[in-house]
Amino acid sequence: MKVLFIDTNHPILITGLEKLGCTCDEDYTASKEQIEEKISNYNGIVIRSRFDIDQQFINKATNLKFIARVGAGLESIDVDYATKKGIHLISSPEGNKNAVGEHALGMILSLFNNIKKADIEIRQGKWLREANRGIELEGKTVGIIGYGNMGKAFAKKLKGFDVEVICYDIKNDVGDENCKQVTLEELQEKTDVLSLHTPFNKLSNKMVNSEFISNFKKPFYLINTARGSAVVTNDLVKALISKKILGACLDVLEYEKLSFENLFENDNLPEAFNYLIHADNVLLSPHIAGWTVESKVKLAQVIVDKVQNIFFDEPKIEEKTTSKRVTGIGGLFFKTEDPVKLKAWYKTHLGFNTDDYGCTFWWKENNNKAASTQWSPFKNDTTYFSPSKKDFMFNYRVENLVDLLAKLKNEGVTIVGEMEIYEYGKFGWILDPEGNKIELWEPIDSAFL
């Protein structure tokens, strides 16, 4: 398998892929057009954010089997089109989630305690104690928007600070023992500190604007370690001036270029940015929340592990002769009044190794490859099982979800919604003849290891 690297990464990424038998080429300077001319020679491409992988690029990549982004988001890739072409999309949010969580916590603690301001003043010969009296995180409500890998990591870091942690997410039943999921209205009513952990999409783009800010019942602090495009800077500055927003910790800015490597296309500084760089109640960092020595290694290793899992940990030859559909039970999901209490009971009395999602049971496939089955209680009011009216839903493991969904559609099976792709696999949903919703999962088990 030939793999092209168009962005620099930790050396273990190339080393790891070469150990799997890949031939790795590097081209960090060629234009997008020049890369397009030769991309048909490659089976894989490894990127960060140098340029968009759009339909034109994908059409020229006639032999491409995977696109690996060393980072959390896939916004620079036409995901739908690549999926239709059967290209595997690989990202690595597991690699820098801890770094982002620590950075977000560090920024808000620094802002609350005037650490940057006090440090600068002391270096100027000023010893101002009362002017730098801080405030404490304890007793406050931290609201998180976007409760995926990064949001969960930040919530975990907040344990021990005696704060209430709540979250809002477009997906149902993502809350856990570290964070209570609430409506957006409740989050805007209670929040003292708001932290953004959303990917780039139509919903998050320019999400934090004047109307959004005005809907908060109390003045609040803002942390953004997600994407700069989520916050309208002009509206943020107006809120800082009016003290609707009491302070801001910004690792990302809407002025960033797509590559994240430079801030501005030119030297003209917007007026709003000029305000931010002179404000004592604003902390800025250059998109480095997930940019640690450790995360650089983790991000690279996650990509290697996922490529290995998808392309090199293959079934035995005799197993390939039969076209399989369902290969095992991936999960048992059921409704309950109190998922947290029930998980604790199963942990205490039956020894379940429970986590945010329930309990993961590990076993071996015939090829000795690690595989998992998930046990997960959901709240009674979940809509995740809809349109089924049943109190349970089964998840089945499958080998090739794209092909299977196409076959099922041709066979007249009801398909529910669109296929979704995450770092731990592809998901699709169907209804059986009795109206039971069935979740089909093409797993990447290594994501849980």
Keywords:
449 residues; alpha/beta; Rossmann fold; 2,3-Dihydroxybiphenyl 1,2-Dioxygenase, domain 1; 3 domains; 8-stranded mixed β-sheet; 15 helices; 20 strands; D-isomer_DH_NAD-bd
> How many strands, which pairing sense, and closed or not: the largest β-sheet?
8 strands, mixed
For the record, the CATH class of the largest domain is Alpha Beta
First CA to last CA: what distance? 25 Å
How many structural units, i.e. domains?
Answer: 3
Describe the structure in your own words.
GO terms for molecular function: NAD binding; oxidoreductase activity, acting on the CH-OH group of donors, NAD or NADP as acceptor. InterPro entries: D-2-hydroxyacid_DH, D-isomer_2_OHA_DH_cat_dom, D-isomer_DH_NAD-bd, Glyas_Bleomycin-R_OHBP_Dase, NAD(P)-bd_dom_sf, VOC_core. Keywords: NAD, Oxidoreductase. This protein is of the alpha/beta class and 449 residues long. It has three domains: 108 residues, Rossmann fold, CATH 3.40.50; 190 residues, 3-Layer(aba) Sandwich (Rossmann fold); 122 residues, Roll (2,3-Dihydroxybiphenyl 1,2-Dioxygenase, domain 1), CATH 3.10.180.10. Helix content is 31%, strand content 24%. It is built from 15 helices and 20 strands. The strands form three sheets. Strands 14-15-16-13-17-20-19-18 form an eight-stranded mixed sheet. Helix 5 crosses helix 7. The longest helix is centred in the C-terminal third of the chain and has 20 residues. It is globular. About 1% of the residues have low confidence.
